[in-house]
Amino acid sequence: MLIPCPYCGPRDSSEFTYSGDATVTRPDAANTTIEDWSDYIYQRTNPVGVHQDYWHHVQGCRLLLKVTRNTLTHEVSGAEIVGPWQNALKSQSQSGAVNSQNKDGAA
Ligand SMILES: [Zn+2]
């Protein structure tokens, strides 16, 4: 499975670490029950079809990505950077300053 890292380009999934379900939102700790908190931590669905997960590019740029993929076919239809680097890299790519060497697929 290839994951299209916005910074490095398409990379094999073996370079990434799965970092969790991107569709789950953290409840407000001040206004939640212990059962809801337990569900947030331990309960996950097993979706079939298009889903979003977090993947950490540990053997590349080390950015956290939100990847959209089909859990049935493993087809990846998109990936976006999340976290504090999201906006910084967008402004660099608009000015052409993103690492152009790595965009060609070189390690
Ligand atoms: Zn990367």
Describe this structure in words.
The chain is α+β, with helices and mostly antiparallel strands. It has a single domain (2-103), classed as Folate-binding superfamily (Folate-binding fold), CATH 3.30.2270. The chain contains three helices and six strands, in the order βββαβββαα. It has helices spanning 34-42, 85-94, 100-103, and strands at residues 2-5, 9-12, 17-21, 50-56, 64-70, 76-81. A four-stranded antiparallel sheet has the order 3-4-5-6, with no helix packed on it. A two-stranded antiparallel ribbon has the order 1-2. A hairpin with a 5-residue loop joins strand 5 and strand 6. The longest helix is centred in the last third of the chain and has 10 residues, at 85-94. The chain is globular. The relative contact order is 0.23. Mean pLDDT is 86; it is low at 100-107. Zinc ion binds next to loops.
